[in-house]
Design a protein that fits this description.
Distance between the termini of chain A: 10 Å
Oligomer: heterodimer
Order of helices and strands of chain B: HEHEHHEH
Number of domains of chain B: 1
CATH architecture of chain B: 2-Layer Sandwich
InterPro entries (chain A): Glutaredoxin, GRX_PICOT-like, Monothiol_GRX-rel, Thioredoxin-like_sf
Helix content of chain A: 40-55%
Shape of chain B: elongated
Shape of chain A: globular
Distance between the termini of chain B: 30 Å
Largest sheet of chain A: 4 strands, mixed
CATH class of chain B: Alpha Beta
Number of helices of chain A: 7
Radius of gyration of chain A: 15 Å
CATH superfamily of chain B: BolA-like
Number of strands of chain A: 4
CATH architecture of chain A: 3-Layer(aba) Sandwich
Keywords (chain A): 2Fe-2S, Iron, Iron-sulfur, Metal-binding, Redox-active center
Strand content of chain A: 5-15%
Strand order of the largest sheet of chain A: 2-1-3-4
Number of helices of chain B: 5
GO cellular component, one term (chain A): mitochondrial matrix
GO molecular function (chain A): 2 iron, 2 sulfur cluster binding; disulfide oxidoreductase activity; metal ion binding
Protein name (chain A): Monothiol glutaredoxin-5, mitochondrial
Chain lengths: 142, 104
């Protein structure tokens, strides 16, 4: 089933970063974030994991991505609760104050409300399809 | 029962009203639903942390959705950075968009 494949796809790379005294986006954090954003066509910064989201907004976003048929091999999730540096850094990097945050092909898409609105309007499906991030239909039928 | 708006909600209403001159503005406080969630561990503000906001304003005309949300986040930057407001659920509509939705 897709749901199981989606779960097994979870990758939560550990950021090894030196804590900073100042609350500025360091070059180190910035390049770690850029690396994370480039790690897959679809990247979600969330609270908790896809199997165990720690926040209703992260849960809703994961569910939508699953329903739209995002290919687990083209998806990476990062748990911001595991790393305070990432949690603060991604907010500054995206200039977006809340989590979850969705990136497709390194472009910031939005948070939970935007993902939800775009999935209802069909825009998200189109975006994911053009990013070649959906499970091929033939495979789904098998 | 009459619900009293807290100081943060009052400030949010004031700032959004002056920033967007909204035709319609609804603010719901959902903080109780999130008071125990992991992201709020150690937080001092758990009673005014989560708001569901609907703003109908002409200022959103021709502005893409992420940019609309950024405008709201910018207007409430102080609340998000310093007052412990943790999440905003936003509906940002122009007047024609809002009317279309009401008539459906």
């Amino acid at each position: 089933m897709f749901a199981r494949a989606f779960q097994s796809s979870l990758r939560t790379p550990k950021f090894r970063l030196t804590p900073l005294a100042v609350r500025l986006l360091s070059q180190e954090t910035k390049s770690a974030i850029e690396q994370a954003i480039s790690s897959a066509p679809v990247v979600l910064f969330m609270k908790g994991t896809p199997q165990a989201p720690a926040c209703g907004f992260s849960r809703a976003t994961i569910q939508i991505l699953g329903q739209l048929g995002v290919d687990p091999h083209k998806f990476a999730a990062y748990n911001v609760l595991e790393d305070p540096e990432l949690r603060q850094g991604i907010k500054e990097y995206s200039e977006w104050p809340t989590i979850p945050q969705l990136y497709v092909n390194k472009d910031f898409v939005g948070g939970c409300d935007i993902v939800m609105a775009m999935s209802q309007s069909g825009e998200l499906s189109e975006l994911l399809e053009s990013a070649d991030a959906l499970v091929p239909e033939e495979e789904e039928e098998k | 029962m009459l619900r009293m708006a807290g100081p943060i909600e009052t400030a949010i209403r004031r700032k959004l009203t002056s920033e967007f001159s909204p035709k319609h503005l609804a603010i719901a406080n959902d903080s109780h639903k999130h008071a125990h969630h992991a992201g709020l561990r150690g937080a001092t503000n758990t009673t005014e942390s989560h708001f569901r906001i609907t703003i109908v304003s002409d200022k959103f005309a021709g502005v893409p959705l992420p940019a609309r949300h950024r405008l709201v986040y910018k207007a409430l930057d102080h609340e998000l950075q310093n007052e412990g407001v943790h999440a905003l659920q936003l509906k940002t509509k122009t007047e024609p968009e809002w009317e279309r939705k009401q008539n459906k």
